[in-house]
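note to self: dont lose this again. the chain is below, predicted strucutre after it. 225 aa total, dont forget to put it in the shared folder this time
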Amino acid sequence: MCGRYTLTKVPEESVVVYPETEKVALIPRFNVAPTQLMPVIPMTDPKRIHFYRWGLIPNWAKDKKIGYKMINARSETLLQKAAFKTPFRQTRCLVPADGFYEWKQTLSGKQPYRITLQDEALFYFAGLYDVWRSPQGENISTYSVITTEPNELVLPIHDRMPVILDAAAAERWLSPQEQAEDLQEILRPYPAEEMKAYPVSPEVGSVRNESERLIRPYEPPPTLF
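---
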């Protein structure tokens, strides 16, 4: 599960697939959480950055609360799940990020880790989106981050990881010419040797905390055993 991530890079670094994409002012985010509005690049309008709510609400849903359960989509079952199979075919998106958090169980409790590329550069999660119309007539655009099995780096920390796409895979992901069945091959763990993980402060566990100190390396206190 990917339930928190970071997007700390400046706008000029936020577009690598389509350099001519319209630039927008982005505020650095150190603790992105579900239900928050975050930038995405949708395949239906890839030359603009849009802001969607994290937690996919299927267009057929009766209640928007279902979005709390749809922050992630398992890559292995995208074509089987009712909420994801149509977005997988028709409304894919890229989710800019430069790190994500996972919690490792230790003797003294759960220790959060931040996981990034080796150079901490910006990257893209593979995402899906949908548009839900509320009973009041409001259109709400939402997204989900696709997850896959962990690589060797993430495995000791968590049993899932988000799908990270390199530039070539990101371009394929946004292409309307690509068939969903053919895209399954790029929904794989990112190479472990190109990533790093380090412990961060437990403060990241609260969505109220949002500051640069959350991404600093943290030395957990020694255990008594």
